[in-house]
Amino acid sequence: MKKFIFMAIVMMLLLAGCTEMVETNAPAVTGKEMTVHFIDVGQGDSIFIQAPNGKTMLVDAGVKGAGKTVVDYLRAQGVQKLDYVVATHPDADHIGGLIAVLNSISIKEFIDSGKIHTSQTYEEMLTLIHDKNIRYTVPAAGDTLALDPEVNVEVLASDENASDNNDASIVLRVAYNNISFLLMGDADQGIEQQLVKSGVDVEATILKAGHHGSNTSSSPDFIEAVSPLATILSYGQDNKYGHPHVEVVDVLKQANSDLYGTAESGTIVVKTDGVTYDINAEQWTGIGATSAITLPKSGKVELVSKDLQSEVVAIQNTSKEAVNLQGWQLISVEGNQSFNFPNIQLAAGKTLYITSGPEAKTGTNSIEWTKKQIWLNSGDAAQLKNAKGEIVSELP
Q1: Each residue of 349-386: b (16+ CB within 10 Å) or e?
Q2: Confidence at 22, pLDDT banded by 50, 70, 90
Q3: For labelling alongside 126, which of 43, 284, 304, 366 has CA 20 to 30 A away?
């Protein structure tokens, strides 16, 4: 039912405020400055752009707890209103902070991926946009945003019908004369391959690495096509996902791209006149990079699947003996929520399903956790802990 409510809100927003994207052609450089701020919101994304003509655009705003940080930062820059706000996709670490932005700053137009999500945060975001009568647009690949006649802002990818939130990511290329920025959201290697095959111009001076430096993004072929002189890694220090992954760092170093990280440097500001650019941070030292998190299988009980749409997690006993699960826990890492298993025996070779959300139920092979939504997005890792508190299995 919630999905239909959200779709109705989206339709009202589109009917009330949908507008065509306007294509722009960049004239000769004027010497005016464009500033791009990669705001430190911990494990998340938030990018603020000040165009040469003074217009502004905010792309994402981190988790809900980062909203005040983003609002305070914008106000410190003298921002009274935002011409554009872009929600790249409905993951909590991208749209959560937009609630505070919507409640605090006037917004002219809201650009959304259109990907429906049943989280309370997404519902609250759409409701605020509707109640405040903000123009609402779901873009398509090839559309441009009329931020500044001297700046070309092109939507390279956006898919409201994507099966995965990350695949729905709005990918933006922002070009001011000879200097360009490629903002990847959480787009994965599949989207990267599509962009390269389509022949669209992905080359960029500065890259905001996809998915916080996860090895699900930034494939060698794509990085070669982008050929970034500098790359921004937006992530939180000692984050639970191990971002940025060393595989990605190695690919970027092989491409001779200078690396900068928000976890080390805090907010990173890039200024450009369209010919040269300056970055107000020291290059990244490599602190915090890890290999992708891969835990050995327990050999007894392990997580085998996680369906984010139906909110079902499957746990299988792969041993030849029954295992008592009393004292075990299933953890939603992003939401920091845990399910405590009752005194139950999981027979050898059998699978137990832990259900949540409106359709959750207890049956022969299933247990209801809660009627509330637990799994926020595709980045919400699931962990299984035994009675000793040891992590025996994990699904990213």
Answers
A1: eeebbbbbbeebeeeeebbbbeeebbbbbbbbbbbbbb
A2: very low
A3: 43
Q: What proportions of the chain, in percent to the nearest 5, are helix, strand and coil?
A: 20, 30, 45
The model's pTM is: 0.71
User: What digits encode the pLDDT tens for the residues 367-387?
Assistant: 999 998 888 755 577 889 888
Of the candidates 212, 182, 210, 181, the one whose C-alpha atom is nearest the C-alpha of residue 63 is 212
Do 2-279 and 301-395 have matching folds?
A: no
Q: Residues 28-60: pLDDT tens digits?
A: 445 699 999 999 999 999 999 999 999 999 999
Residues 6+ apart with CB under 8 A from 278: 270, 271, 272
Q: Which pairing describes strands 258-261 and 268-272: parallel, antiparallel, or unpaired?
A: unpaired
| β-bridge partners, 58 | 48, 85
Query: Residue 118: is its pLDDT beyond 80?
Result: no
Residue closest to 284 by CA, chosen among 328, 230, 221:
230
Strand-by-strand arrangement of the 337-340 sheet: 337-340, 329-332, 382-385, 391-395
Say how far apart CA 113 and CA 196 lie, in whole Å. 21
For 2-279, which CATH superfamily applies?
Answer: Ribonuclease Z/Hydroxyacylglutathione hydrolase-like (3.60.15.10)
Helices (H), the chain: 2-17, 67-76, 92-95, 98-104, 120-131, 189-198, 220-226, 246-254, 262-265
- Give the span between the Cα atoms of 17 and 124, in whole angstroms: 18
* Half-sphere exposure of residue 16: CA atoms within 13 angstroms, side-chain side: 16
Q: How far apart are CA 258 and CA 266, in angstroms?
A: 16
| Straight-line distance from the first to the last Cα atom of the chain, in angstroms, rounded to the nearest whole number | 28
The CATH architecture one would assign to domain 301-395 is Sandwich (2.60)
Dump pLDDT digits (tens) for 172-208: 999 999 999 999 999 999 999 999 999 999 999 999 9
What does the domain layout of the chain look like in residue ranges? 2-279, 301-395
Q: Where does residue 141 rank: exposed (0-12), middle (13-18), buried (19+ CB within 10 A)?
A: middle
Asked whether the beta carbons of 183 and 174 are under 8 A apart, the reply is: yes
Count of C-beta atoms within a 10 Å radius of residue 341: 21
Is pLDDT above 60 for 345? yes
Residue reference for tokens 């075990």: 328
